[in-house]
Specification:
By secondary structure, the chain is an alpha/beta fold. It is built from nine helices and seven strands, in the order H-E-H-E-H-E-H-E-H-E-H-H-E-H-H-E. The longest helix has 22 residues, at 147-168. Residues 1-42 are annotated as: Disordered.
């Protein structure tokens, strides 16, 4: 315990690794922080209906909890992490809001249609869409990235954003909001995450273009570009030594927590950001990206 606390104080995590992606939050040490107890909702999203991909853990879970605390009805889509998804459901309902849970691969367009149909069946509409699910597979060289990996990464990280928006838009009205999770790697690049960084750059362009496309309909589209955040994707992606040092290279010298990112989504989903569209927020630990 003392070793674990010392590592955290130095901006490090205890060495750990998970063998399957996108990883399980319940297996992480320490557990990511999903919602600070001092965060008090003020009804910013009262009676709104929000659908969040990758909502079982990490940033997605934190967004679900913050939205619920602000009064939104929540739905989450997840791949296969049943226990994490059930915990998110428990936490959301503890906030007094319903939580629809849909299992499936968002890289498959039919999953996206099914998730939207469930939300519309239960709530009649969608006010907020959060495209957040993602995966990454480090490789030392471009030559090591197979066609299968390339297609898989693009299908999850950007095809799914198209699929979800396409399915949700017929059920969104003026005042709706779409928020896309991109990454600091879209702006800084990453030599070992060539395909992942490319998808995140595509998300930035998708966000800007869709914002222009939907402006006349009164639907705003923005993005969030997190830096190093302590989520299940980290121990399920990197070896133990890299996990231990994860986040220590940013100006704030530590990895961020999901509940340090979720308020950016609340802002972009609420009327507080009513004059913003086509923009990206950067909760990244102090890295200046000029993007």
């Amino acid at each position: 315990m003392a070793q674990q606390e010392g590592a955290q104080q130095e901006g490090r995590q205890p060495p750990q690794h998970q063998n399957t992606q996108p990883g399980h939050q319940d297996a992480m040490t320490p557990q990511p922080s999903s919602a600070r107890t001092e965060y008090r909702g003020s009804g910013k999203l009262r009676d709104k209906v929000a659908l969040i991909t990758g909502g079982d853990s990490g940033i997605g879970r934190a967004v679900a909890l913050h939205f619920a605390r602000e009064g939104a009805k929540v739905g989450i889509v997840y791949l296969s992490e049943d226990e994490d998804a059930e915990e998110t459901r428990r936490l959301v309902t503890h906030e007094g809001q319903p939580c629809t849970v849909v299992r499936g691969d968002v890289g498959d367009e039919e999953t996206c249609r099914r998730a939207v149909a469930r939300m519309v069946e239960e709530h009649g509409r969608i006010d907020i869409l959060v495209n957040n699910a993602g995966e990454q597979h480090p490789q030392k060289s471009l030559e090591d990235i197979t066609a299968e990996q390339l297609e898989r990464t693009f299908r999850t990280n950007i095809f799914a954003y198209f699929f979800m928006a396409k399915a949700a838009l017929p059920h969104m009205k003026e005042g709706g909001a779409i928020i896309n999770t991109t990454s600091v790697t879209a702006y800084k690049g990453s030599p070992m995450l060539l395909d992942y960084s490319s998808t995140k750059g595509a998300i930035v362009s998708f966000t800007r273009s869709l914002a222009l496309s939907l402006a006349e309909r009164g639907i705003r589209v923005n993005g969030v570009a997190p830096g190093p955040i302590w989520t299940p994707l980290i121990p399920s992606t990197f070896p133990e030594d890299k996990v231990e040092k994860f986040g220590s290279d940013v100006p704030l010298k530590r990895a961020g927590q999901p509940d340090e990112v979720a308020p950016s989504f609340v802002f972009l989903a609420s009327a507080d950001s009513s004059y913003m569209s086509g923009q990206v927020l950067h909760p990244n630990g102090g890295s200046v990206v000029n993007g």
